[in-house]
Amino acid sequence: MTKSALQIARAAYQPKLPKALKGFVQVKEGAATQSVADQEAIKELFPNTYGMPLIQFVESASETSFSPVNVGVILSGGQAPGGHNVISGLFDGIKKLNADSKLYGFILGPGGLVDHNYMELTADIIDEYRNTGGFDIIGSGRTKLEKEEQFDKGYEILKQLGIKALVIIGGDDSNTNACVLAEYYAAKKYGVQVIGCPKTIDGDLKNEMIETSFGFDTACKVYSEVIGNIQRDCNSARKYWHFIKLMGRSASHIALECALQVQPNVCIVSEEVEANDMSLDDVVTYIAQIVANRAAQGNNFGTVLIPEGLIEFIPAMKRLISELNDFLAANAEEFSHIKKSHQRDYIISKLSKANADIYASLPEGVARQLTLDRDPHGNVQVSLIETEKLLSEMVATKLAQWKAEGKFVGKFASQHHFFGYEGRCAAPSNYDADYCYSLGYTASMLIADGKTGYMSSVRNTTAPADQWIAGGVPITMMMNMERRHGEMKPVIQKALVKLDGAPFKAFVAQRDKWAIETAYVYPGPIQYFGPTEVCDQPTKTLQLEQAK
Fold first, then answer.
1. Does domain 311-380 have CATH number 1.10.10.480?
2. For every residue of 171-184, which 3-state class applies, written as one string?
């Protein structure tokens, strides 16, 4: 591998660890847990891994000896900055327990486990990837581990390699799969532990025990830098409205965090749109009015931040998409034989009247995008819907109407952007480098303690790293039942933006001012080296949530 100057410099960075993990470690068990909802249904599905206690690691005065352990690791789902550091922390942790321990990486995600595609991760390999972005050390994939034949096929290679623990690094769906796998291996008494690590740049895998998912900090810094660049250009040329869609499959955490960092003229928060029962026209009118207000001051430019999943949060659109998801899941074969020119009429004829009317009213392009291939979970792929273009076109139409009525004096020209892949494989910020390394190291301690069905947890991360609290949370504690592919399935509950939470309240307190003024902030690139107040700051979201 050819290394950049930055990579060479970053290789020397030693991630910080919680004080409790630096020496000898002992386990402190908390109270028994229960799932966040649907307790009876989850308990019935997970009899061997339900109700386990919370775990915290604390310093110990006595040394404990450990036998060598072989561990497998999987990177699952979309990339997020810091994945390599989770693996580095895991490697260092199991080597500290016993120098003869081995780490095996399964290639290209969960599919590598099923297909017996693996490699041993040695010190030489690990050292190449410390503090780097991406998942390229072993690659990632989106194969869902949900069938017993997959579990048994995976067990064959685990048994062959003498692997006693498997660490799955992924988001809410990947960790749901980890929980199902842990339950299956426990029920079969296979003697294989399964541990999860919380990854998703979307920021929607969090709760009282998981403060933030890794990668969110870095991705938001990367996006905020680029948005800041656009805002500076916007304020220089003074002739364009920039509609910027930001990654975030369901929750608006990224859009909100970026808004707190860059102070745009408009930021739509999907959860607020849903709570206020806003229609698509309501959203368009809100944006158009801000455009008109700025135009009245001679400012025919601005920035609009749009969460990727917005369309699904507009209640009428959500009902339409829900019916579409269920219908297409049940009739995929039939729909695949319908000519493209007839698909729109076919869908309209099959939907309920209210949803058929909404679908018929949509522009051809958006209607087509709603029926494109589903994601692995059977849902519409919202990233394929060009919401930024849809909104700017509808805003332009409304402003033209207002102009004809004498309600708008000004010019409106737009530019469109979608920031997604740009942030997924960035070199991790100091925060993510430290946090991820600690998550991996914590996973090794959960393995040492014989735990399964747990997710690695590192909390109190707005404090200095030696004050961080490391432990584990039973994955079943985070689960509820949701409809997937037309059936009720156990899944980790997504954490959406809380409208009564400190980050959203901080945004609401300023947004009217940002809407009319040009109050842009230009954060600049991620800072790795320099003053602590620049380099080591966690996200504004986390600071506000922790009231620090």
1. yes
2. CHHHHHHHHHHHHH
Tokens for 278, please give them.
């806003």
Where residue 375 falls among pLDDT bands split at 50, 70, 90?
Answer: low
The verdict on whether residue 511 carries a ligand-binding annotation is no
Q: Which fold has domain 32-215+428-484?
A: Rossmann fold (3.40.50)
Express each pLDDT in 179-192 by its tens digit. 999 999 999 999 99
Catalytic residue among 173, 202, 217, 434: 202
Domain boundaries defined on the chain? 32-215+428-484, 217-308+386-423+494-548, 311-380
307, amino acid identity = P
pLDDT in tens, 90-122: 999 999 999 999 999 999 999 999 999 999 999
Q: For 223, what's the count of Cα atoms within 13 Å in the CB-facing half-sphere?
A: 35
Over the Cα atoms of the chain, what is R_g? 24
Active site residue 202: yes
Whether 247 has a binding-site annotation, put simply, is yes
d(Cα 252, Cα 313) in Å, to the nearest integer?
10
Whether the predicted model's global pTM rises above the 0.90 cut:
yes
Establish whether 483 is an annotated binding residue.
no
**Non-local CB neighbours of 320 within 8 Å, separated by 6+ positions:** 351, 355, 358, 359, 370
What is each CA distance from 120 to 66, 125, 388, in whole angstroms?
A: 21, 9, 44
The reply to whether 217-308+386-423+494-548 shares the fold of 32-215+428-484 is yes
For 122-208, list the strands marked E by DSSP: 163-170, 193-198
The 10s digit of each residue's pLDDT in 335-349 is 888 888 888 899 999
Helix (H, G, I), strand (E, B) or coil at 469: strand
Determine if residue 223 is labeled as part of a ligand binding site.
Answer: no
Largest Cα–Cα separation, the chain: 81
| pLDDT value at 256 more than 90 | yes
Alpha-carbon distance of 277 to 333, in angstroms, equals 34
**What does the block give as tokens for 491?**
């899944």
The dotted CATH code for 217-308+386-423+494-548 is 3.40.50.460
